[in-house]
């Protein structure tokens, strides 16, 4: 049953693994259990709750993290282990309900409405899901339950670590309004600062304002979003079969990024574009828009993009656009210091269509070169064939793409 487009029953689950990478490390090495663990040396990719208690946070520089928590055990990331663990967890999700909407490698929305006679109440279903993730995969997971996707996600945040939290329909605003304004989707440090300048600290403060006032503070689109979410208005359903709208990769550089030469930055650019375009070709996708994402020493971020005249998965074409974006952002990088660089290709064509150009005989067959390289790597391993500029360089650890 739905009321104004929103289900009347709290039957949407937001399941979120706790400190995913660090939990996998603690699972696989008993000596790490109960100890502060940091995954990643140059930049923190993940921190156990024992490390978080000292103030260590994801994306923090490694030097700062070790200063906050000198007794932390620092381990290198093992992406293959995390990928396998993610697959096993999603099998549990899919065994729970057919309505699973992945959000990332370690979280998803699940719709369990209509399963009452077969599986029990949403709380019972969530409890069994947590038990099965623990028993079958060996990892802790937190589940939030609510009528809306937004509130289910907030509930899982409030229920961490290793918890289960239901927000009953008659207690939604009582639960939501006392929370800090940062709990509203889209409110990062800059938006929170703008709101604080107007004396807005909590979700209740937001809910007291008309949409027009919020739009004047933070812009029309954000104002409309905050007005709705502060009242728990979220009519989005859990949708399955969600396709990625972009293919991306990024690399954390840490403090070392401040001293990297242009050639060293270019090597990182080449490496990331090579990975992205190989994935695109492997999945039969092409794209038109190349997006550059930067993070700076002051934790600020910047995004630049360029749309190509035609969709492509060619490494050389994407690389040319990526280099141009980096060149355009060079003054900003020099001024603020670079700690992370990432790229994504969006405007995806999932059929892999590419527009041919006339005259055909004047177009270099870059696709044939890319295809040959892909086949060699597939057969003999990625490391066998690489670009000359990358020989002898540390390929670095690729981080999962973070939202802007």
TrEMBL record:
Mg(2+) binds at residues 16, 106. Gene3D superfamilies: 3.30.70.270, 3.40.1170.60, 5' to 3' exonuclease, C-terminal subdomain (1.10.150.20), DNA polymerase, Y-family, little finger domain (3.30.1490.100). Residues 12-188 form the UmuC domain. It is found in: Cytoplasm. Keywords: Cytoplasm, DNA damage, DNA repair, DNA replication, DNA-binding, DNA-directed DNA polymerase, Magnesium, Metal-binding, Mutator protein, Nucleotidyltransferase, Transferase. It is an enzyme of class 2 (transferase). Its cofactor is Mg(2+). PROSITE patterns: UMUC. GO terms for biological process: DNA repair; DNA-templated DNA replication; error-prone translesion synthesis; SOS response. The active site is at 107. Pfam families: IMS, IMS_C, IMS_HHH. It catalyses: DNA(n) + a 2'-deoxyribonucleoside 5'-triphosphate = DNA(n+1) + diphosphate. The record marks 21 as: Substrate discrimination. One of its GO terms (cellular component) is cytosol. Belongs to the DNA polymerase type-Y family. Monomer. This is DNA polymerase IV. The gene is dinB.
């Amino acid at each position: 049953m739905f009321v104004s487009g929103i289900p009347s029953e709290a039957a949407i689950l937001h399941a979120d693994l706790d400190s995913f990478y660090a939990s996998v490390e603690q699972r696989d090495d008993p000596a790490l259990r109960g100890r502060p663990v940091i995954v990643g040396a140059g930049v923190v990719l993940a921190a156990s709750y024992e490390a978080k208690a000292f103030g260590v946070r994801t994306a923090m520089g490694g030097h700062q993290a070790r200063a906050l928590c000198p007794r932390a055990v620092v381990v290198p990331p093992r992406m293959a282990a995390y990928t396998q663990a993610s697959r096993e967890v999603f099998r549990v999700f899919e065994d729970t309900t057919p309505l699973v909407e992945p959000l990332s490698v370690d979280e998803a929305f699940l719709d369990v409405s209509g399963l009452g006679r077969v599986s029990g109440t949403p709380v019972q279903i969530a409890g069994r899901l947590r038990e099965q993730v623990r028993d079958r995969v060996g990892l802790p997971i937190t589940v939030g339950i609510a009528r809306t996707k937004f509130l289910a996600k907030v509930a899982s945040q409030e229920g961490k670590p290793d918890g289960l939290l239901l927000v009953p329909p008659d207690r939604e605003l009582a639960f939501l309004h006392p929370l800090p304004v940062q709990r509203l989707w889209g409110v990062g440090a800059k938006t929170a600062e703008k709101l604080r300048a107007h004396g807005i600290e909590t979700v209740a403060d937001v809910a007291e304002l008309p949409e027009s006032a919020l739009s004047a503070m933070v812009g029309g689109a954000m104002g409309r979003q905050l007005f709705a979410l502060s009242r728990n208005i979220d009519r989005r359903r859990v949708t399955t079969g969600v396709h990625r709208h972009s293919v991306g990769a990024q690399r954390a550089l840490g403090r070392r990024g401040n001293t990297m030469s242009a050639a060293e930055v270019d090597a990182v650019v080449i490496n990331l574009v090579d990975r992205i375009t190989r994935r695109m070709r492997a999945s039969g996708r092409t794209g038109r828009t190349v997006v550059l994402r930067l993070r700076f020493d002051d934790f600020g971020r910047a995004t630049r993009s360029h749309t190509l005249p035609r969709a492509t998965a060619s490494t050389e074409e994407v690389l040319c656009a990526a280099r141009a974006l980096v060149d355009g952002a060079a003054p900003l990088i020099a001024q603020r210091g670079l700690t992370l660089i990432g790229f994504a290709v969006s405007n995806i064509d999932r059929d892999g269509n590419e527009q041919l150009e006339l005259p055909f005989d004047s177009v270099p067959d870059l696709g044939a070169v890319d295809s040959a390289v892909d086949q060699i790597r597939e057969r003999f391993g990625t490391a066998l064939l690489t670009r000359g500029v990358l020989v002898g360089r540390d390929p670095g650890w690729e981080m999962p793409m973070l939202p802007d």
